[in-house]
Design a protein that fits this description.
Rossmann fold; 213 residues; twelve-stranded mixed beta sheet; alpha/beta; homodimer
């Protein structure tokens, strides 16, 4: 349960949603402490995590045997008031995470998808980066922040008020200059990056969804 | 383009997300005027809609040939400021829709999924019911409303503030009595129906995600 590879502050959490391709998962796992939520072990047979975490009601018998054979530490948490992903993010925060990537947090069930997207807001802390990766896209929550990311020409980008933000962009085909985005009222979808960087300034709270390239 | 089956006020919109099983789609289409968004025709080869609608940049040549063979009316709309689903919902509203079901509005791309979920709020009108179906779940937006639905014991139900609501439930395992739900702060997930009806009273704005049974 203790972090074996000491001083690692970068985490990868593998959740139960739509799984990533094994190749993408391996690439994201590099240099990160990997936490697998229990049911996610069923979907990712080649994944050997540093920790198996959850209420252990979703893992299959073969996946559990595999974890035991690999001597993966198990953190069984049965509190029903928090989801497995919430428990994992709390665990990362306790271990002074600087950078957390969550994969398979979306897709399949919409109750989990929406609950997980809302966790982006709940766990926003200064100094720690939390990002979801779907294989197709990356998703971040930004509150009163500036962000600058490497981009490619034509890369799709969308910004949502979460629930509300005024935004300014640099490097977007349809520039946002003091644009008021409100969830369910106005969002910026089907925008595109024009060059090698995409920058966003947010006053208020927003979700950024950026295509993977 | 005119509604052939006159006086139909029930619509089914088939979007580009994760497609439903053909059997589920056929069941939902019964008694409804069916609108297929252009790219969705590629995913549903056995679907013969009443109308094909969209900017026509996503439909494949074989799907378009199929639509022509079936003499499906085509409504090509090229305004880039609205998504195809938004155009379809506007079209339904223009035709005095009383009941609109949208399938495949979620899954695959998260930019589309989040934009589509936010449309539930934008298109909420008194007297018209708008519901998303994913094959696994149904999703509704409720503003200052009461709702009572047929349920089965053990059926999963989740309620989210969208962005904020106080809610009261009847027929839930974990009863909500004046519970304040706020997006990214507190939601009710992994709740369950206890009997044959599930009722919800909402002050404010909420999303209901209910398992299909």
């Amino acid at each position: 349960m203790a972090i074996q590879r000491s001083r690692i502050r970068k985490f990868l959490v593998v959740a139960h949603g739509e799984p990533l391709a094994p190749r993408q998962l391996r690439r994201l796992a590099r240099g990160r402490y990997v936490i697998c939520l229990d049911g996610a072990a069923n979907d990712n047979p080649s994944l050997r995590p540093d920790l198996l975490l959850g209420d252990m009601d979703g893992i299959s018998a073969p996946a559990l045997r595999r974890m035991r054979r690999w001597k993966v530490p198990v953190l069984a948490l049965t509190d029903q008031n928090t989801t497995d992903l919430e428990k994992a993010l709390l665990w990362c925060a306790m271990h002074k995470a600087k950078d957390v990537v969550v994969v398979a947090a979306t897709g399949r069930r919409m109750d989990h998808t929406l609950a997980n997207v809302s966790l982006l807001r709940r766990f926003d802390r200064k100094g720690a980066v939390l990002e979801f990766r779907t294989g197709l896209e990356r998703i971040r929550y930004l509150k009163n922040r500036r962000l600058s990311l490497a981009a490619k020409r034509g890369q799709r980008v969308a910004v949502f008020g979460a629930p509300e933000a005024t935004v300014w962009s640099t490097g977007a085909k349809y520039p946002m200059t003091g644009l008021l985005l409100r969830w369910g009222i106005l969002e910026s979808v089907s925008n595109e990056c024009t060059g090698r960087r995409f920058a966003l300034r947010v006053e208020g709270e927003a979700l950024l969804v950026m295509e993977e390239k």
